[in-house]
């Protein structure tokens, strides 16, 4: 298949580029003509390929280090080549740049080809803005999370800690059967939905990232000044119960917004929801045992058994369960579940994008939605005020610049299945 990766120099862009090229797909990696993009292209050419690294011990028994030669993929800074090459384009840059990038793609002629665009991940309520550029109904696929836990440790290197077990993607716009078949082939782990709220409100980054970064800001800055890594999830949440309590409060707001919209919610701590979740996962784990040595069948089993959550928004502890296999323990607080998550125990460094991206595209729209439904969003307001103080922004101007939530936005979130 012909795949385009927009922002191939980013950490997730490298993962998509390396993984799909390694699988034998025809990949064009687009890099912005910035200093970073030029440096990445130069490093790839000098290295004669991209080095794909994985943990030394991985369940799929894949080679922990492999050079994918340059002749197996293409790389450059031509939007026209990207459009001409691609059957599907994956946007793998911070979502704060998506609108600017879509405008550039429109000028380069993408609207004539109607190439499905994957937003990885989409963040919150973005597609209506993009339709204003490419036309209402343009085919978008919104991932609730990146397909990988990955890093970009060196030039011309992609480190994939693991592929996510399963994630939800909302199909938005005019996506036909032919394009959908390609998506199913590329992403056999995906649970497909026609309800945008399950990815906009299923954006767990808005819960985990901004509050953790802001509440640990002084410690993170101190570690940076000392030239030390700050273990974002372990020090910032697992060893900081009060931060975990704040995250649970944010999560409760997110879930209540989903309820107000009319989306089914499963909330940790609610007995009936715990029971329903337990039944879903017990059935899945029972069937998984039969296919532990067959990754293809295992992915199909996970997708089949979890398809029932394609119209739901679930709490963070349930998300950790189906995404990372951190089995839910009833009444366990979030900070302890984070502490049991293997992928967070390894190289979980603090990244500035956790506020630069996840505040304006996650925390802020969540605050706006909460205000629309007249919920108590004081905890979000406090965090947004702290962010504005750090970034030297005027709070009122920052809040007002986002615009207002309208009935049209709420109807968009409900999606075609609920209209």
Structure write-up:
The protein is an alpha/beta fold and 419 residues long. The chain has two domains: 192 residues, NAD(P)-binding Rossmann-like Domain (Rossmann fold), CATH 3.40.50.720; 209 residues, Orthogonal Bundle (N-(1-d-carboxylethyl)-l-norvaline Dehydrogenase, domain 2), CATH 1.10.1040. Helices cover 51% and strands 15% of the residues. The strands form three sheets. It has an eight-stranded mixed β-sheet, with helices on both faces. Helix 9 runs antiparallel to helix 12, helix 13 packs antiparallel against helix 14 and helix 19 runs antiparallel to helix 20. The longest helix has 21 residues. The mean pLDDT is 93.
What is the count of distinct domains? 2
How much beta, percentage-wise? 5-15%
The count of β-strands is: 14
**CATH topology value of the largest domain:** N-(1-d-carboxylethyl)-l-norvaline Dehydrogenase, domain 2
What structural category arises from helix and sheet content?
A: alpha/beta
Strand order of the largest sheet: 5-2-1-6-7-8-11-12
